[in-house]
Design brief:
The chain is mainly alpha-helical. It has four helices and three strands, in the order H-E-H-H-E-E-H.
Length: 157
Amino acid sequence: MKNLSKHLYWFLLPIILLVGLDEWIKAFALAHFPDESALTNPNFLNFAIHKNWGLAFDIPFRREFILLISLVIGYFLVDMLIKNVKSHPKIAFSSAVILIGAIGNVFDRIYYGFTVDYLIFFGRSALNLSDLLIVLGVILLLISSRRSTQEQTHKAN
């Protein structure tokens, strides 16, 4: 990943395509999957609709507040991406993955009024592909930030 900053878009293209696929799956799920309340005997993984009207984990907030918070977080992610694209491309990539996943969920909130979750784990935890990308991006960001800090400490010694 040495030249990641020069070819960042090639690494991000599959992520963008995954969010496009996620939006297609959400539309398909809304038309064909049952509501999660119809699950009488949930398995490890079920395909059903969960309408998330709140933040992560269904924490209830008004839609306008959620969109405002999303814009603020998005601003900081874009800023982190721009500041690190040349010096720490892995941090920039991680920020972009989080941002792209979040855009998928923000689109849902604007278009549907809620986030569409369709992967129901253990009859309780509801996720979609954009959520999984956000989690992946956060994990990558933590790993990249830790390595960057270790490299800076090593260079200083």
